[in-house]
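Weekly modeling sync, notes
Attendees: S.R. (lead), two postdocs, one rotation student

Agenda item 3: backlog of single-chain predictions. S.R. asked that every request posted to the team notebook include the full sequence so nobody has to chase files. The rotation student volunteered to paste the first one in as an example of the format we agreed on. Action items at the bottom.

Example entry:
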Amino acid sequence: MYESFYGLKEEPFRLTPDSRLCYNHASYKNAKAYMHYALYRGEGFVVVTGNPGTGKSTLISNLMSEFDGSQVRCTNLNCTQLDGDDLIRLIALNFGIDSNTEYKSLILHKVKELLLQLHSEGRRSLLIIDEAQDLSASALEELRLLTNLQQNNQPLLQIFLVGQSELRQTISAPNLEQLRQRVIATCHLKPLSVEDTQKYILYRLSQVGWKMDPTFEPAVFPVIHQASRGTPRIINLICSRLFLHGMVEDKHHIDLKDIKEVVKSLVEEELLQGEELTAPPATTLKSI
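Predicted structure, as returned to the notebook:
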């Protein structure tokens, strides 16, 4: 709605992940670098964690957009409380393998055949599992066993585990020591700082044709940061409502009163946690 009012090519603050609008803040770049490092090594697990809304699914989407299938065959699973057998079947299905059999051994044989074929073609196989904190111990053990598949001392499958912070606690369990020894890198997506919150907002706007309409009072950004706690998904929620508010009020300059009104409305709708909002002096912030 507000895109036309402000002359934007598309909505910049959608809640669904969009790899085209990735802002490469420090912990995001770090996580992506570890993933590329693991691909270069060709072995082991990478564990990426973060609180809800910090960009884990966007990171996966961004990474997968780099693959055209010629060098890496990648599949992405979104798991919720799967046991080991169900996970193996889901992995097979996502790799395009018929798993319509009661024998897990046959499914594993078909998976190995595919991985060997890809290896012979010079292609790597990558499995990315989102919401991995919900995996059972038996499912995680099945994943470890999959990484045992080798050809000429080269692993046939790499696995990235992506999930919320409790994933680290899960893989620290004593019964998962063998899996933990195969983790070559771990990283945590942190919330954005107040400076990065401003850069994040302006970057997404720049990608959709923003031409300084609307402009912003500098004190708006610290309030967005405080209300969102630096969580990108919540920043998007606030900014989308802020732009809608600007359109309804026919405003081309967003000030402190506007953002406080929007945050108050979101708190009343129970879409944000309520707290007293403050903002640093405008002179300490970059004018927009």
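Discussion: group reviewed the output briefly. The chain has twelve helices and nine strands.
Action items: rotation student to repeat for the remaining queue; S.R. to check formatting next week.
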